[in-house]
Fold this protein.
Amino acid sequence: MITKIKVSNMTSNNGNKIANQFEIRTDKGVYFQSYNSIIAFVPYADKPTILDSYYWDYSRTTGKYRNAFLGETIAETRQKIADKVYQLKDLQIKRSPYI
């Protein structure tokens, strides 16, 4: 169970907040969210980074900020997926139809 959550906008190189690009810090690790989609999760524990199987490479904008979040290029990310350093899973939150 996650007990602590802190959400903040990613910031540009000159310190400005970037709209629709978020880092979500929990007691388990850090999530990257682009618009309304969770793109990546980097756990604090010695576990693999998880990328959303559908949205991890969804658009140019998502890719730009995913690269910044992970600190690597798309080629490096693809290689880590191929080498099974990163796992691909569905990271989207399923919403109740009653909400």
DSSP finds two helices and six strands in the chain.
